[in-house]
Prior knowledge:
Shape: globular
Distance between the termini: 29 Å
Order of helices and strands: EHEEHEHHHHHHH
CATH architecture of the largest domain: Orthogonal Bundle
Number of domains: 3
Radius of gyration: 18 Å
CATH class of the largest domain: Mainly Alpha
Largest sheet: 4 strands, antiparallel
Strand order of the largest sheet: 2-3-1-4
Structural class: alpha+beta
Helix content: 55-70%
Amino acid sequence: MVLYIKYMVSLRCKMMVKEELKKMGIHYVFLDLGVVEILEEITQEQREELKTNLLKSGLELLDDNRSILIEKIKNVIIEMIHYSDELPDLNYSDYISRKLDLDYTYLSNLFSEVKGITIQQYIINHKIERVKELLLYDELNLTEISCKLNYSSVAHLSNQFKKVTGLTPTFFKQLKQKKRITLENL
């Protein structure tokens, strides 16, 4: 049986879900961002208990297919930008379509309808958060960050960063109070 969980976007979230399943005596085969495959069928009571317990941690057990698909799209993007060493050489629409084995136009229309922004804007938001993270680590310069995140140039990265944050990457890096948005709130 496969369960889909909303807002499960980090390693910490995965640990919370593992702990909750362990407490309830539910065994899983596979656990990744937004998805858990459990060995046995669970009763409606167990499902409600899991749903309630996950809500306490800010996670949400999904029931309807549209919400599940939206979470799958979001998780593909989050994994691609935040947890992959390199972004795919394919354009993002092809990558997402292949990962989910669905037509990109369908995915894009559904995402825009439900989330109120395009998949492209969602990707840009996540790329900018990743840029912020890399700037804060101070291990890569802007040229290396630009290359790592497949920007066509440093100028393009800088322009997009300023458009989204209102700050230049250099000014952001100099800020004492470095503000990042948690992945759950993007």
